[in-house]
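Quick one: structure for this chain?
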Amino acid sequence: MAYLERVPLDPDLDSLEPLAIIDSMPDGIVVTNLEGTILLVNRQVESMFARTRDELIGRAIEVLVPDTMRTDHRKQRERFRQHPKPRTMATDLELFGQRADGTVFPVDVALSPIHPGGRTLVIAAVRDISERVEAESHTHAVLHTIDAAQDAVMMFRPNDWRFTYVNRGARQQLGYSQDELLTMTAYDIAPEFTSETFGAMIDPLLAGAVDSHQYSTIHRHRSGYRFPVEVTLEYPPAVKRAETRFVVAFVRDMTVHDRLRADRDHTNRWLEALGAIRADLLADIPLATTLTTVCDHALDLVDGERAMIAVPDSRTKTMRPLASAGAPSTPEPIDPLYRPVLTGRGPVAADTALILPICKNDEVEATLTVEGVATADAHKRAVLASLATEAGTAFDLDNARRTRVQLRLAEDRDRLARDLHDLVIQRVFAAGLRLQSIQGLIDNPKLADRVADAITQLDETIAELRAAIFRLSNPEPTSLRRRIEAQVTRAADHLGFIPTLVINGDLDTVPVRVAEQVEPALAEALANVTRHANATRVDVEMTIDDKAVALRVTDDGGGFDPGSVIGGNGLQNLHDRARKLGGATTVLSNSGRGTIVTWTASLEPVWG
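Got it. Here's what it folds into:
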């Protein structure tokens, strides 16, 4: 109390005794006159504003107000002077104090006018509310964060399930306003539940048997739209001094999650499809088979009805199918639909069809068409573009494979020609010279005639070897394998699809005399299928070993009774060609079950 003794007290303050009470109050107390001059401050003011009593008494009250607010404060003080009455300035104002070091902090101020000795003085009770403001700011931030969450956060009473709080995420998720939701219950938005079933589900949570309960269900939007959700319920303890507890529901709309999962599954299928196609490319599978695989995956990945890979035919001015999936494909006009794709102007979307270019050696030489696509979005275009790229790689690899085979055959022919010329012909020629040298020494006429015949045969053999060497050095431009593949591909013009082709062994080892019969035999078998089978699938398999070549053509057409066939030369021609080469033809067929034609020929010479 020593500092109070040094305060020059106004005589009118005698009525405020004892002053010690003011000094011991927890709030800061400032006494001013109506002009705003500080007459008295207590110890709390000194501590709160970091100023001594001597620094404050006799100065204007604005010394305790931040610099930027002093003008407004003077106006407020003038209004109070005109109508002095008890009031709390914090009811409609944000008030701040300023310490000696310039620090600004929030305060709450209550004003009370007093009238000692006929004068009017003002007592201001000042409270530092920094902690309260910080707590309120934290609470506001928490509530703002919860309200801004995209997931729905809802609170409801455990006795009647009526909502007491819903955040913005809940309002956006369900389409109701806040007022509408606060009249609803937790099971009103979940068609799956009734009051009884919902209560039975969360009873363990309310009884404390579990800490939380999670389940998946369907919620109903205000518009009637239903969407999948995942709900987590919790029953936290009551707030301090409050008896009411609320159930809290955290609700996540799983629509996007389910779509992302579907997209992920689709991407995995896409990658698996590319892997399967590339496995075919590495396995040296025939081109037609690989292209059919591409068509199959194209249909699966974009939910189409028909897929086709086709090449332009300048003679017929149509796109000739090489492979297809779904409904059988037929040639289609190049103009006007396919022309933009073939001329390098990119993919074309027409109605429900997508047409993409397939590049072979960087040139557009084929197209991938998928029909029956519901929506031709960017993702589906990207999927089909990747499959078209794989098809282009298949074309490139097939060309490289053919070139490699042709080079290997050319090298083998050159080597054989050199060996025949340098070794075999020389030895045969030498044998002929030796026979000629002893021919004049033979006295037996019959033996001499036989030696002469041998010399003649050796001369003929030399001539045949020279002809063979010439043929090896100048081979036919197209190998048997390539002719067989071309013939299978051409069959699509009549069948509407490309038959599958499997070749076991090296076709180029087949002797010319046999090769000359294999090709027409296949043509005859395919022609019979085209004319009579009405098939949707044809499989061609050729097997070559050291002794024979076997051709098998299988279709799933209507079939027939081979014994009841009258007229026609197709099967008879197959029989004749096989018999000339020491082989045979068998036909297995039943009405409605398809047909299997097997044609064989011996690779060994047929005598007689």
